[in-house]
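Catalogue entry: protein
Contents: sequence, fold tokens
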Amino acid sequence: MALAEPWHIRSRSRECSVTQRRFVDGEIIVTALFPDPESSGYLRRDFCTDAWAEYPTSEEDPKPFSFWRTAYAAPETVEKAEAIRKDSAEDILKRLVEEDEDYTENTRYILAIMLERQKLLRETDSQRTPNGILRVYEHRKTGEVLIIKDPDLPLDQIEAVQEEVIVLLENNGRLPDKEPAAETEAPEETPAPPSEETVALSEAAESEESEIAEVSAETVITATAEEAVEGEAIEEGPKPA
């Protein structure tokens, strides 16, 4: 099932939440997640190291659910334009996290493992909750944080989920609708030659499919086994220094 706690992607702040000083490129900062008192979700706050060293300043300050140190990367001012826009594995994962549908839980987990292997995401923490193990991932470039539930995926389901990921990448992040059965046979038509855009999209899909193939069943099985052992050793959430 999907997370009981509503969670959406949280972007990195450009300034310290305590001092309001703007971060500089390459500066070491502390990112912390706190339980949201107004919902069952989480709030993100970014601190400069000096402000974090003095946290908490009072007994009323909330205890973080998770926190870690990271290097601040200033956002790019100019985005590279793409002639043909096609959703990548990263785009698909972000959309699925935002939509938070029950049936995409396994797919989100496999995509997160794939992007971690590609060095786009890094796992910063894992916490055991009443609803299962939550794994906290940070985007290495943008600093965005995603919480992915570990679905404790059975080994006999991994291949089917991988195939679904490949279909998503080939169809711009959407599962194709099943075509209704034709009532009458349509006359055969000579197919038109593929357009340059179609050829480009096909080549991009093949490239993405090869990346999925690299995250083989054996790799995912190993990762799942390692994380299962790790999950048993997870203790209560970290406390601020």
The first strand starts at residue 28 and ends at 35. The first helix runs from residue 49 to 53. The two ends are 34 Å apart (CA to CA).
